[in-house]
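Researcher: Structure prediction, please.
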Amino acid sequence: MKSRLTETKPVSAAHASISLKTAYRIENDPRLPSQKAAPRGRRRADPLVAIFDTDVVPMLEAAPGLRPIAIFEEMQRRHPELPDGVRRTLERRIRQWRALKGQDRDVIFRQVQEPGRMGLSDFTEMGDLGVRIAGVELDHRLYHFRLACSGFEHVHVILGGESYVALAEGLQNALWTLGGAPREHRSDSLSAAFRNLDREAREDLTQRYDALCTHYRMEPTRNNRGVAHENGSIESAHGHLKHSIRDALLMRGSRDFEDLLAYRSFLDEIVGRKNARNSKRIDAERAVLQPLPDTRTAAYEQALVYVSTSCGFVLRKVFYTVPSRLIRHRLRARLYDDRVELFMGGTQVLSLVRGRPGREGKHGHVVDYRHVIHALRRKPMALLNLVYRDQLWPRQAYRDMFDHLCERLSERGACQLMVELLSIAHERACEVQLAAVLSEDLAADRLPDLKQLRTRFAPDPASLPEVCVQLTPLSFYEALNDSYIGAAA
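Model: Predicted structure follows.
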């Protein structure tokens, strides 16, 4: 067209390397081919023209939260001739209507996070990962702490539900790992921790939580119930963390762990790698955090328990056995998320694994056969109908052997033999080895031989140390006595 200002059409077409026919067409109509195309119209009749404005729009105005699938099903009930194939058309039409005439939506305002200001805590379910400890699926949660600015993360395995004890232990572990405390601690409404508590217990929990934050000079804040995006800096991190754990489990090739400590080390390694990627930002924020106090505060609940003649006590609907020498004593119990520590006065006497009540309110049992085996040897028939017999067995092989003995022997004979087997496991410290032998006997369908087992698991004389005691002559003491009398004189 620039050449056309001074040249004729044939010359301008030659300069542009196009034909003369194309030159005439461009000069007569300079629009592009895409501009000449007519707008695409409908290729078939609108199937919603008769019902959208009259039926669908009034439903959207009356109940803005209705899902499109519910509206579609209602339209099919009102108009049976409506085919299934128009569902997507209806969904698109509803989406367009809501964009043009629907209600205003909530707006998420992204915030500028100030270093050292906010740390966030929350719990996340982990049951869907299928983690197993020693072959048993682990029903657990993760306590998750995160700094909003630098992204520092810390996790702690929680074996029970959401509670103040779990929050206090996880939060303090995170702060002491970090080496400082933010000025503000944000959590959700803690509704799960308050569940099934009476008014006084809720007020006590609130006071303890406020005291925990005061100890670390943090201001406690909470997001509104049901508004998860107000805690978005931790809620979104839940998903990323769980994806990282799931990927690590797949690359590991197994979801089985030898014990809980191995699983916790596995999680610490994953979180450590995430923190390493943000090490520069974390170090910069760590410099402006508040210093930690000299000591931690209590991360447990305390209760007084009485050891009954059943050689145990009940705490939170769980029966715990203890050594019989503590019968009729009152102990102070410190209840943590994963353990119960028992104190007599200021002396810790025992630490037990924390148990959980059964389903439908049934009592749980945490039983150690070593606590009662001496009494069972005097009363072996007590084993037959013992309340916590199923929890008494240290391993599956012992349970299977008792069932086998009940089939082959009388009730008295089965109980006596089983109690002797437990005694050997305790006295000879061969619980695992004896379980392997019992498994072999079960596979061979034979009864265990007590005499052979006692010989097999007896101490090896060659391994016993030879202790030579040299007695000091009495004349040495007389010499000391004489020298003392002479010095006094």
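Model: The chain has a mean pLDDT of 87.
Researcher: Thanks, that helps.
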